[in-house]
Amino acid sequence: MTGRKARSLACTYLLLLHLWYGLQGANASKAEEKLFRDLFRNYNKWIRPVANVSDNVTVAFGVSISQLIDVDEKNQIMTTNVWLRQEWNDHKLQWNPEDYDGVTVLRVPSTDLWLPDIVLYNNADGQFQVKQQTKAEVQFDGTVFWVPPAIYKSACAIDVRYFPFDKQNCSMKFGSWTYDGAQIDMKFGPSTYDGAQLNGSEQEHQMEREEWSNGEWVLEDAPGAKHVVKYECCPEKYIDITYYLIIRRLPLFYTINLIIPCLLISFLTVLVFYLPSDCGEKMTLCISVLLSLTVFLLVINDIIPSTSLVVPLIGEYLLFTMVFVTLSITLTVFVLNIHHRSPNTHNMPAWVRKIFIQILPKLLWMERHEVQVSAFDPLEIFREIIEQEIREQEVREVRPCLHKVPPGIAGLKPRPKSMDLEAALAQRKGILAISRQRYLDDPILPEVKEAADGVIYIAKHLRDRERNQNMEKDWKYVAMVIDRIFLWTFIIVCVGGTCGFAGQLVELDRKQTNKQIIQITY
């Protein structure tokens, strides 16, 4: 019984407590309803909330950047998700909380209030004002605090000079569209970036935040400045607050998918001059590299905006490489022309032989095997055969002569045994000369001459063919030397050009500065 009684008392207590809070809520709801009727009974939302016409309404304005949605480089549009923090005082919306059961804050639809017509000046899609009309918070002293969310597409001039290692300065200019500075004054109010509180002075506003990224861009800073501008159309001065979003591109995606392939393809150009001319694929490789670079250039042109103000650095590098490849095609045609030269069409000048065969190969650390000259000479062999046959014929004819006395010398007396050796040799030489002449005047000599002419013709043909082959080898060696010269030249130019462009990227942080924020004061 005791437990049942305790449970009954607890239920009764909870019921009474619920009824008490319900009555209090009903009283509060009635108080807010009465307050709303009293405030807006004679309220005109089209009139500025000032006591005197000469007074101005001071609007504390701030922006909370929730997300950087997209940066369209092609159309030069930046899409952001922001909260616009606007605060002003409306003297018509003041009340004494004691008269309304202590109600100090009233949330009312913004469509029932006077709102400053603050718009984004550099809007890019036609939506200048806030679409979502959220409720505003009205305090008992007349302070109105309105924080509508908005997605803006603002114009942003894209500087593609250092793409994809670039920084962009995209501005968002806010100001009243119809009220001049004498009617509405704008100042920096409390602003946050992704929950971080922003502190600023009267003319400058600096963001305190942590680095934030959307996968492609990093928002590094977002300073703001107040401007007082006098336009040519109107004598009045207009006030605007401009925020400058300093965003930096994350280059990893483009480095892997664009820059590294371009570098590798450009270095393939160097291999053209290392490829032997006999393989017949030099021109194919050159043209393939040129077509690949053309595809990459079209990809870049599809990404970056169509502007004639500046050429991106990577575009300059691709153009440099394309000129590089085009020059390699021209030089390859020249090398192939030299490679296929022959003695029938070209004679090698002496200066070419001296420079490209004797001097330059030593400077380029090139070695050439000595040209093997054939030791076979048909003419020499033919001469040896003839000489051998003559000697044999002489021997056959001289032997009978040694036993016969010529008729012209029959009356001569025999010389003494002491005749010197020289006379004997002279006599023998004369006999041999007579025999040689008789052999040459022999009737069989025309046949021998005909055979000799045939041998001479064959020998000359073989000698000319060997000379032509050696000359063709010389031309091919000259082409190889020229290829080696172009190989080292292109390696130096390619590495130097790549390092030159990379050096400009290294100096990017020092060369590229943020756009100067011009502050115009009264």
From TrEMBL:
Encoding gene, per UniProt annotation: LOC109475906
All copies of domain Neurotransmitter-gated ion-channel transmembrane, residue ranges: 258-500
Principal cellular location given in the protein's record: membrane
Residue ranges occupied by any Neurotransmitter-gated ion-channel ligand-binding domain in the UniProt entry: 32-250
Pfam families per the UniProt record, alphabetical: Neur_chan_LBD, Neur_chan_memb
GO-annotated molecular function: acetylcholine-gated monoatomic cation-selective channel activity; transmembrane signaling receptor activity
Domain of life according to the entry: Eukaryota
Protein's name in the database: Neuronal acetylcholine receptor subunit alpha-3-like
